[in-house]
Amino acid sequence: MENKQALLQPYSKNGLELKNRIVMAPMTRSRADNPEFKPTEDLQAAYYEQRASAGLIITEGAQVSEMAVGYVNTPGIFTKAQADGWKKVTERVHAKGGKIFIQLWHVGRVSHPDFHHGELPLAPSAINPNSKSFTPQGFKDTVTPKAMTIEDIKTTINDFRQAAKNAAEAGFDGVEIHSSNGYLFHQFFNKCSNQRTDNYGGSIENRTRFFFEVLDAVKNEIPEQKIGVRFNPSMHNLHGMTVDEETIPTFEYLLKKLNNYQLAYVHLSEPFTDVSKIPFAVTEIAKHFRPLYHGTLMINGGFTQETGNAVIERGEADLVAFGKPFISNPDLVERFENNLALTEWNQNTFYTPGKKGYLDYEPVKL
């Protein structure tokens, strides 16, 4: 009997062909516990292969350079060894009929000198996010970063371009530019973290310039239809981000301008925290931004099978990304198909080395 759930319907637009509308969200898992920070066949390749029934997998963030690193044991996509490791991942996922994008990542000021041989992390302006950085020696306070020079900006643009090229050579179906969650691009977007007075600061157009320059560089390496982007418009009080009177207009500007591109999708997050009493914040992200963007819209943030089906049925999103449920339910799609209970996740093993809490969640016996 055909399953009528909206989440389980195939999706096709602008070259993006998915067997269902359930997306595995990008999630840091800190399993690249090796000197080269590369994915391995016995860990990452097996992990993503287990979840290949998703319409689309988006990997954990992969750093585009050494300066982009900000968390312990996270994989990169800037060396040959890393790209070769990812190739094992894509081969295993494709063999199972899955599709997989890699998330390209630069954390900016959320990093720590411990990751950069004592050098300061890079950011649009020298403003400390007053957050915590998860270093090899444990959590440490963030520091005041180095304001990026024009040369730093040009280098970083090229890092993203090269990472996209590496990703294509590793066999990925596409890339997602991580422009969200208080990391480098988000730092440029927001007035609280960007106080530049050059062409990359001040007006909304200037604060989004770096993002579009990176996007244009990436699309010189891979087709626009294989590029997704991710935003978190109402993120507040995390990694030093705040919502002000220009925050939502900045993201409205971004989405409207992205209509000029033929992207795979725009990936939006509902607020991570309660922002109902925060001035200028938007509480229903999908509903607010859907009328502004004419391409494929993906939404994430605490969705269940029921609410995921509903947001698609209302026309507010085309795809729904699930995070933590995919950690403990590698067969999440099959569980939704059969309306089965989900296995609870163990948060204590989200970022620990090895297979425990990573590969040992059992699929349901049908």
State the fourth-level CATH superfamily: Aldolase class I
Radius of gyration of CA atoms, rounded to a whole number:
19 Å
Helix count equals: 11
The first-level CATH class is given as Alpha Beta
Helix content: 25-40%
Low-confidence sequence ranges: none
Task: Provide the residue-averaged pLDDT.
Answer: 97
The chain-level structural class is alpha/beta
Shape type: globular
User: What is the percentage of strand-forming residues?
Assistant: 15-25%
Question: What report would you give on this structure?
Answer:
There is one protein chain. It contains 11 helices and 14 strands. With 366 residues, the chain is α/β, with parallel strands linked by helices. The protein has a single domain (6-349), classed as Aldolase class I (TIM Barrel, Alpha-Beta Barrel), CATH 3.20.20.70. Strands 3-4-5-10-11-12-13-14 form an 8-stranded parallel beta barrel. The protein has a two-stranded antiparallel ribbon with strand order 1-2. A hairpin with a 2-residue loop joins strand 7 (132-135) and strand 8 (138-141). The longest helix is centred in the middle third of the chain and has 20 residues, at 150-169. The model has no long low-confidence stretch (mean pLDDT 97).
